[in-house]
Amino acid sequence: MKQFRPISIAVSGALVLSSVSTSLSSQESLPRPDPAFHGKISVKREGAIPYWPEPIKAPDGAPNIVVILLDDVGYGAASVFGGPVQTPALEKLAASGLRYNRFHVNALCSPTRASLLTGRNNHQVGFGTVAESASGFPGYNSIWPKSTVSVAEVLRENGFSTAAFGKWHNTPSWEIGPTGPFDHWPTSLGFEYYYGFMAGASSQWEPRLYRNTTAVETPGRPEQGYHLTTDLTDDAIRWLHQHDAVVPDKPFFLYFATGATHAPHHVPQQWIDIYKGKFDQGWDKLREETFARQKQLGVIPADAELTPRPKELPAWDSLPADEKKLLAHQAEVYAGFLAQTDYEVGRLLQAIKDEGKSDNTLVFYIVGDNGASGEGGLDGYESDGVYDSRMATIATRLEHANEFGGEFFSNHYAAAWAWGLDAPFQWTKQVASHLGGTRDPLIVSWPAQIKDAGGLRSQFTHVTDIAPTIYETTGVRFPDVVNDAKQIPLEGKSFVYTFDNPDAPSHHNLQYFEMVGNRGIYKDGWWAGARHALPWEMFSIGYQQPIGQHPWELYDLDHDFSQAHDLAEKYPEKLKELQGAFDSEARRNNVYPILPIPGQGRPSPAAGKTTFTYRDGVTRLPWGVTPDLAGRSQRIVANIEVPAAGADGVIIAQGGRYGGFSLYVKDGTLIYEANAFTPHHEKLVSSEPLPQGKVEVSFEFTADDAPRKAEIGLLGLASSTAGGAARLIINGKQVADGHFEHLSPVNSGTETLDVGADSGSPVTDAYQSPNSFTGKIEKVTINLL
After folding, report:
1. How far apart are alpha carbons 227 and 211 in whole angstroms?
2. What global pTM score does this model have?
3. pLDDT digit string (tens) for 393-410?
4. Which residue ranges form the domains of the chain, and what is each CATH number?
5. Please, are residues 385 and 658 in contact by the beta-carbon 8 Å criterion?
6. For residue 735, what are the contacts with CB-CB under 8 A and spacing of at least 6?
7. Over the stretch 56-65, which tens digit does the pLDDT of each residue have?
8. Closest C-alpha among 105, 148, 108, 111 to residue 128
């Protein structure tokens, strides 16, 4: 094969290799200064000579760049790497490019994305954990530094069009709102266009979406066939068509990060039906079958070993028949979700081909950002807003099984399925000490340059390597200074050298891993790791126990692909060397303190305030910019006007089907309903109808003296509840009272506060969203007492 050079251009219909023009990439500082005027200024028009500055152009022949990132997919899930889920679009892409079987991620959502988009280690970008769990330390504050410019910004400044679609999980929670600030939103970090959701997870049926920095509603409802992954794909294709219509010769950078396949596992029924009965054999047998296919495909070495099931997970054969039936169906739903995602991504790739752009489009398809998710716990879960699997028998759960995947259920599979889909490795997402949380498939396709179609590459690569590879292939120089901020050097290493040479030694020889207390370090073929807590233990154990309860393990990855043999006792000096390397990297990259308590003193526009006034038209306020009402003594006062025909609808609501509250009117009756992480639904109903005209209505809650109780939401989000006395008041007269046992924690990542409506999923099944108020709202005042 010819020696690879970054850029190819067409001459007489044939592809030839050419050197990159460096006239634009020689600059070290971005943005570039305004060009000098090269015309002529004259007092009279006749002697003046106009001049137009040349627009910035990308290096000649630079490829389009497409980065695709799936969510919560295990190494052994997709068929392209031997998994049980058929992914024909992914297989087609792999057949035209390269498969990387030693590619690594950061074991959790936000951290992987931070490294992917900057080429730096995640703690350097402030994302030592997910954005919602930020704490006040440099490695964990979720505040993307100016010294870590995104690859999107660099490409934009070098003549690329840029767009991002899907999950954006890298903005501080307190900056997600209608007033920003917008410095850390996609459109301020290099993307000229953005469409997606600003959270770690989302309903696929009722997502809370943004276009650029504006909150927008979905173009359809679930009953009309709306689905988020389809919507994201449609919007990305629309953007491609617009781009091609106006600037077809301008290269683009498209970042497509679906919310799939993160829980809730939401997917149309026809995709679930495809996998009926396909998981009846259980997770133990599934791993054996996947392992055999992986060897047949050659994506794992012939001498690789299948690691055993850990004692913390049950054997499939130990489960009762009804439980097997329930859990097998959980996997069927997930498989359908992944298969549908593959179909939608395939539509996006086909659109690029239909435009005649695929030949010179470099695609990085990362099949998972952190391994399969064990966050469903040992039994998995599902809820429809009233029914909660955590409180139900297996028989009751089976009665609901055919509804899993629909808009009324938030569902996640049992943790052992995640382990099964991470074959042949140990553990799952979050567990950065082992490969199950840190290794995922990578497919790279670039038909114009990569000639070893279907080839396999086994160099150690990491998500930080994507950005440097993009810079080399596009001929764009990484800047020293951006917007007057000196840049932290790239941590990743370009792996362009692997395109032509499958046997080249790895250029990435040292890489630390740390996530929620789980630690790992790779150095020159060796791996050392120490587990702290498992995903389903984080709130019960992870933040309670000190780091260091589990011993360090040692693996020789050059001869033990799957981490099957712990060599810590055999090579104590090697272990000590790697432990020292971890400490050195941790100090250099802001990893310490490990596992800081999230949220303490976190900034918020609501911090320190006790009175909040919301007027008509205020909607889509996320949890990070609103008061924490959970279990707090409070008074909500609404000044409304009821027309002669009466009024119905929501006055104020926060949250949704899986946690929140709503003060609403139904059939002329005032109602307050609290939904405290189902099945705790409690409500007050007025004994009198609302009068006509101007009316003041109030809800008052006085918390009991007992301490607030911790609650864990269905997405693993902790909050607190408290019992207390509750009252409804109309024009100064008490019209209902009672005692609440649990008061309204809010499903923080996915829902919002709205005045005059309940957007997203409804807090109660007493109405359908948005259930807009038919009267007038002057203002709603919330007082924390």
Report:
1. 17
2. 0.94
3. 999 999 999 999 999 999
4. 7-47 (no CATH), 64-508 (3.40.720.10), 611-784 (2.60.120.200)
5. yes
6. 670, 686, 687, 688, 728, 729
7. 999 999 999 9
8. 111
